[in-house]
Structure prediction request, 146 residues.
Amino acid sequence: MDELGAVESVGAGGVGGVGNDPGTAGGDSSFGGVVMANGGGPGTANMTSGTSLAVTNGVSGPVAGTGQFVQGGGAGEGSIRLSGASGLSGAEGDSMLGFGGWGRSTTGVGGTSRGYGGGASGAFSLGDANVGTVGGNGMVIVELFS
Prediction:
């Protein structure tokens, strides 16, 4: 029986955005250079500063890859500002093995994801800007049959 080499990499979650800027894309995961799970892109639904009514659209989830077992991810939700004192940040997309961060209506950093591959929610800021939160780490599952 042949042994597998120890060539594997699990991508880290993307870094949360700062101020009105988006975060970064999640890292890629691979196993032996044959299996690849691309990290999801950063959220692009950023709310600009202001005190009047404003909304942003959510972003669609990533499409499934290729191969025998493929699954896409869940979409991120939009955000809404009702006034300079109230609003709701968008919750982020779920993955098949994890849940995205929750939307928040009080000042604070974005909500963290749970499990593997879920997105982190956007921060909510009244006054000084809060930073986003790191998204969930990816995972590669390999099943060997003989």
